[in-house]
Each structure stands twice: as structure tokens, then as C-alpha cells.
Amino acid sequence: MIYFDNSATTKMYPEALDTFMKVNQSIFGNPSSLNKLGTVANDLLQQSRKQVAQLLQVLPDEIFFTSGGTEGDNWVIKGTAMEKKAYGKHIITSSVEHPAVSRSMQQLERLGFEVTYLPVNARGVVSPADVKETLREDTILVSLMAVNNEVGAIQPIQAVGDLLAEYPTIHYHVDAVQAVLEFVPMVIHPRIDFLVLSAHKFHGPKGVGILYHKKGRRMEPLFTGGGQESGYRSSTENVAGIAATAKALRMTLENYSEKRAHTLQLRDEAARFLQSFDHVRLFSVPEGAAHILCFALKDIRGEVMVHALEEQGILISTTSACSSKKGDVPATLQSMNVPAEWSRCAVRLSFAPDNTFEELETFKQVFTQLQEKFQRIQK
Questions:
Q1: What is the pTM of this model?
Q2: 322 tagged catalytic
Q3: For the segment 247-262, what is each residue's pLDDT rounded down to a tens digit?
């Protein structure tokens, strides 16, 4: 099996899986309990928090653990709205956000908030000038994804951060779920107030997320109850998953430049190959994320291509795992003004550092045969 669907989820590092298993077996106490096993569990929880903070170059008490990217995005958006509604009800986001963001915005609109959805250009990127033009006295939040999950477009996170330095009361939220291999050069910015990660996107376990919450920035909790995570996120912490997440993040960021360079070489070689076909259209651009390549074979719907490749042992996806079973027109391609007859045919290759050029050669051979088969059928 060849796995080119790493934007949907990644395979856990064996070392992270080993940590997960060992902690579940031997440190299974509730970290809120006062007994010895609970104390050991809490020590490991805080050690993991400290490790993540060091990797992200922030303070340990600015790191909170969640169930994943969706919870993190929901928490920041709705928590900010609840905390700051007395000061304003205007929010700025883009037209190409993950549903965890866009549908949270829609919920807030039904509650009386006003949301501005910024357009993107043909490369899928928003303009910082549009952000500035849209800011108002009652703006309370700017929310942008760092890397688009459908086409890999990289948003101008740093430029918007520089802009918002002049507006200190506005919360700045970054969904960085797809951005781990772009993380160090792009996402770290002192103006970011909230940043969301999801462990299963960087070879950690599913069901664990990381939220960076800048000290001094206030927002309401979504979960109330036992008061875990400094009272911000009540629920017994998944200590085994959190420990495995800390290990996975450390392993991912080790030699990240070399890992990114490898995935970039894979992506660029795949792009050169696909561009050799007159009836293939690429939607990802060279300056996009190193691990994502979105393309379409004319008149062959995305789900048909996905299943045809799967029959040959190659796993890819349509443009978003969250929407792939619904048959929706990809929101990002729609916002990029890609015609529906092309966007419905879009599929996504997404690479990880453990993918090989031998796997890519197999994909090239199989795709060549498939496109020839589809061309014969269409004649």
C-alpha cells in the first residue's frame, strides 16, 4: 500500500505509539487525584506540557491540551465571542477556512455576530491589505488558517501579524493544523494570540490537540466541570495521548528543514509529471505548502479517481477528508473561481517525510495507465 493521504491523517511514529501504550499500561491514574498514581500522571502531564512549550518557544502555562483541531478552533472562536461581545461583534476570517472555523462563524452569525469573509486570489491567498481595510472599531477577532488543507495555499500569517500589532485589543487566531512542516519559518509570530494544532497531523495519536493561548488574552471556556487545564478546559486529561503527542511533535520538528525539503522534492516531481498531461490541471502553486498537491484529470470526478487508484494500492483523497463523503464542491476551489466542472474532479496528494521516490514512481506508472484508460472510455 502506498499512502499519499497524509493531510487527512498520518501514521503514528512507532516511538509515539510505544509511549502511548506504556503510559496507558503503567501510568493510568487520574492526574487530578491526590494518590501516588495520580501524582505520577500529573507529573508526566506537566512534563509533556513543558516539552511542547519549549518546542513552540512559548511558556508552559500557555499550552492547553484539547481533543483536536476542531475543538481548538471552536474554543477560540466561540470563547472569544463570549468574552468580548460587550466590546464588539465583528469578526474577520477568510473564505477558504476549514469547516471547524467556517461553521463556527455561521453559528455566531445566527447569534447576532457579523462576520466578514475575505476573498482569495487565484492562488488561494488572502491579501493583508484586505484585512486592514476590513478592520473596524468593533472587530474582536481575526481568524486565519496558516496552510489551506485543500490546495496547500500558505496565508500571510506574519504580514497580518505585523498589521495587527497596531490593533492590540483584537484577538488573532491561527489554525496551524496543516502547517507543522512550515511551522518554524512561518507560524511563530509574537502577535499571534491563539494557535491550534492536531496531533494526528504530525504522526501523533488521534483525539489530542494543542492550543497555544497567549498569557493575558482572555476567552471563555467551552467545557465547564472539574476545572482541569487551569479551569479553561474541564475534562480528565488524556495523559497517554498527550505524552505521545509531545514525543511526536519533538520528532517532527527534529531536522524539520530536511524533512520539508524531502516532501517538497516529492511534490515538485509529482507536479512536473502531472503537468505533462494536457488534460490535467494543477490547483496548488509552487510557493504553497511542501506536502500538498491538488490537481484534476479533466471529466473524471474526484471520487472516481480516488477509487481507481485505491484498486491499485495507492491511497489519496478528494480535497478534504472532512467533506469527501458528502460530494461537496471544494470550498477553496470555489473561492478561487475554479469552474465546477474542474473542481468536482479535484483530488489531493499529500506527502510525509517517510514517503519515497519509489512510491512516487509507482504512482506515475499507475496514473499513466489510468488516464489512458479514461481517455479511451471517453472517446
A1: 0.94
A2: yes
A3: 999 999 999 889 999 9
